[in-house]
Each structure stands twice: as C-alpha cells, then as structure tokens.
C-alpha cells in the first residue's frame, strides 16, 4: 500500500466502493464513484500496490504522457480517496478499483485496514448486473445489508443469493467478519444494451445514495446523458422489429409486476425525494 498524503481526522466517514469487472455491468457502478469523485473534488490518499493482486496480461498498464509531456506508465490498481461534501455532515471515503485477479482475501484485508485507519464507520458497495429489464422504465436498484437495523431503516433486504460471487460479495463478507456495517446497492442494466456506458443506471445508483446519505448529490450532465442514452437505444430498437417486440414484452411484464408499487407509500416517497432536491437546489 502506498500512502499519498497525510490527512486530518475525518468526521464519521461513510465508505462508498465500486470495482470494475464482473460486478460492474456497463461500468455503471464504477462510473458512479467516478461521478462522486468529480462532483465532490475527492483527493486520492492511498494506492494499493498492484503487484500482488493483478495479472498485467489481463489488466494491462497504460502508457501515455503526463501534463509535462513526459512519457509515463499508469498501472491498473485500486485507489482510495477522501471527500468532504459541502451539504453532508460527515466525510466520505471513496474506493475505486479493479476486481483483482488473485489473493482476494488479502486484497480485502488491505483495503479494510486503510478504511479502519481513516475511521470508516459504514461501507456501501455498488454493483451492476445484466437483467431482463426494459430500458424505457426506471432502472431497478436492489439493496441489501448485513445489519438488521439498517435493513429496517432503509427498507432493504437481507441477501438470500446463492451462487458465484465477485469481489463485491467477498468484500461485503470481509466487512461482516470484522463487524463493519455494510450496505450493497445493485443496478439492473438491460442485458440487450450491455455495452458501457449506461448513465441511466449510474443515475439510479446516485439516487439511492442520496436516500442513504440524506443529501442531494450534484448531478451535472448525468440526467441529460441518461435521456440521450435512452433516446439512442430507442432508435436502435426501432430499426429492428424483433428487438422492438422484445422490449414491448419486457415493458408489459415490468408494468404488470410493478403495479402494486403504485401505492400511497411509494408515491409519497417519490414526492419527498423531489421536494428535498428542490429544497437543496434553492
């Protein structure tokens, strides 16, 4: 681990983490952390030494030039940054990296050691998966947690998934082993448009983080990018009747399944979110 700079003590920091790879359909999760790093002017404070965790024939280093025009190699790795959002009464630790090729338990232990040293009190992992969901409807985001009180407060679930997992699942388990409270949000990306980026899924994850943190996160161009993405997929679907028919079938299934959600509680929750954003923007 390479420490980039010394830091003052952080205020009750929440950790938000995402990793490129198997857990990151259309790069939606890693793009969320990229967005947060940008709008919150995050500073990288720790780099994980990639030698122990990455196969450079799989995740190759990148060669380019720096701001002085000098040639340099950028190695694939995982970085930890800190931010102090102006409207949030706590600091944020952002973890952005790649799913490692080896030594996953050691990798998680090293990141958690850095998080504990920085005072992290809650870990939020982000993921994205391919699913049978139409691009014309809101992107579904499922939330789970290891903590029953968080499950109740945020109306999440205790995960019942059984099967292969990626670094997000392993990292979540590593948090449980050291009694670190953890939450995980997963966006469902339409599988027929799996090519990154998917700004609509990134926007959905940002919205769930707003609910968790109780603060409006600057969106910048993200809503317009999401609308442009949807328009582009609409145009592609219109050119292929089979795809268009498939999308209509997904829409019918989704609308039928979601009908019970059009409840007073769901409508009130959406209205409260709208009012909060309007208040924070005024």
From TrEMBL:
It comes from Nocardioides panacihumi. Gene3D superfamilies: PAC-like subunit. InterPro entries: Proteasome_assmbl_chaperone_2, PSMG2_sf, Rv2714-like. It comes from the Bacteria. This is Filament polymerization regulator ParJ.
């Amino acid at each position: 681990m390479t420490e980039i700079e010394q830091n003052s003590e952080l205020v009750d920091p929440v950790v938000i983490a995402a990793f490129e790879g198997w857990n990151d359909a259309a790069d939606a999760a890693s793009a969320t952390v990229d967005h947060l790093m940008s709008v919150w002017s995050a500073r990288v404070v720790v780099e994980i030494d990639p030698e122990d965790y990455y196969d450079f024939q799989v995740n190759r280093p990148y060669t380019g030039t720096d701001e002085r025009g000098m040639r340099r190699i950028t190695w694939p790795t995982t970085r930890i940054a800190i931010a102090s959002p102006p409207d949030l009464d706590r600091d944020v630790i952002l973890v952005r990296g790649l799913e490692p090729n080896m030594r996953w338990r050691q990798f998680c232990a090293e990141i958690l050691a850095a998080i504990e040293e920085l005072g992290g009190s809650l870990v939020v992992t982000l993921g994205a998966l391919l699913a049978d969901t139409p691009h014309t409807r809101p992107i579904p985001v499922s939330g789970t947690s290891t903590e029953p009180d968080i499950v109740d407060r945020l109306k999440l679930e205790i995960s019942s998934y059984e099967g292969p997992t990626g670094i997000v699942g392993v990292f979540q388990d590593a948090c449980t082993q050291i009694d670190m409270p953890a939450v995980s949000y997963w966006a469902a990306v339409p599988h027929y448009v799996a090519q990154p980026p998917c700004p609509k899924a990134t926007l959905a994850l940002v919205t769930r983080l707003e609910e968790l943190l109780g603060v409006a996160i600057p969106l910048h161009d993200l809503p317009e990018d999401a609308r442009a993405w949807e328009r582009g997929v609409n145009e592609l679907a219109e050119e292929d009747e089979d795809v268009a028919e498939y999308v209509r079938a997904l829409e019918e299934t989704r609308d039928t399944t979601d009908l019970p959600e059009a409840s007073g509680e769901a409508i009130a929750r959406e209205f409260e979110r709208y009012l909060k954003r309007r208040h924070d923007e005024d």
